[in-house]
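Dear Dr. L.,

I hope this message finds you well. Following up on our conversation about the binding site, I have prepared a predicted three-dimensional model of the protein together with NAP. For your records, I am including the exact sequence and ligand specification that went into the calculation, followed by the structure tokens. Please feel free to forward this to your student if that is useful.
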Amino acid sequence: MKKFDAIVLGAGPAGICAALYLVRAGFKTAIVEKNSPGGQVLSTAEVENYLGFPKSVKGFELADLFSAHIDEYPVERIRGDVVSMETALEGTIPLHTLHMAENGEDLAAPAIIIATGSQHRPLGIKEEEEYRGKGVSYCALCDGNFYKNLDVAVVGGGNSALEEALYLARIAKKVYVIHRREGFRGAKIYLDKIKKMPDKIELITSSVVDSLHGSPNLETVKLKHVETAQTRDLKVDGVFVYVGNLPNGAFLPESLPKNEQGFLITDLEMHTEIAGIYAAGDIRAKACRQVCSAVGDGATAATAAINYLEQLDV
Ligand code: NAP
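The resulting structure of the complex is given below.
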């Protein structure tokens, strides 16, 4: 078992920021990364609202900058997947152990910051899996280019759906945004941009995706009006699903309090109910899910962990 003062789980903006603060405070810090560093920023085409980038910045560039920042410090970067965690007393101090997948070496520390983020919520319709990769996608940046001059639909009414509809409008012939309500959750600035290009992006509101059809690839989406239950067929080659997020928390112990969707509940200092365990970023139950709020969570969690470790005198 490898021991550290603090271990950060997840190398998105929240985790990278937390690791930066911990290592700069002089603590032996590890950051566990499952995939490439950057988290969801990596699959965002352009980040327009992160302070300091007035002309916007590409998601992968911002992720590279975050990663380069901790490379300036002796943070131990561990590639792996945490499958479970448990807490036991070492003397009087709670020590948290992380069990890794594929016989990876166990890791332990008195302070853990969970920043494993969230993943796309599926639409939850019967044919969704069948058409995954054959017309159904969850990443416009990754798959958008397959739909050059073709017709696509984006499902959802939040910032992700609106942002990605604008991105796809630069590639596809036509983009339909399918949203289950009349009102949109996403920012007015995106909606205003969309409304200025009705030939390119069409809003279909009060409608849900009922079923998917085509062989072998997606050809038609059956839409259902939520009030009248009337259905209509929409011919599209691709559907991009942006209907919110689910927490990446399969490894979390039962004893950590979560909300009904499984997001971790913390206090204002990002502390969970278990001494020495903090949560930061999208894994946390909260309203604002932005790169800047993830970074803020990371700094807050690390500051609380630093105070805790100083009291323990590790
Ligand atoms: P979101 O804000 O939770 O929006 C999800 C959308 O999907 C909502 O419009 C919701 O409809 C709809 N929806 C949920 N379940 C559905 C279903 N089963 N069928 C059809 N529609 C469904 O999620 P998000 O857009 O992924 O964004 C997540 C968070 O990241 C948000 O806090 C967002 O502000 C933030 N974000 C920010 C930026 C940015 O500022 N640049 C970019 C991306 C994301 P209802 O509205 O009816 O609930």
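In brief: The first strand starts at residue 2 and ends at 3.

With kind regards,
A. P.
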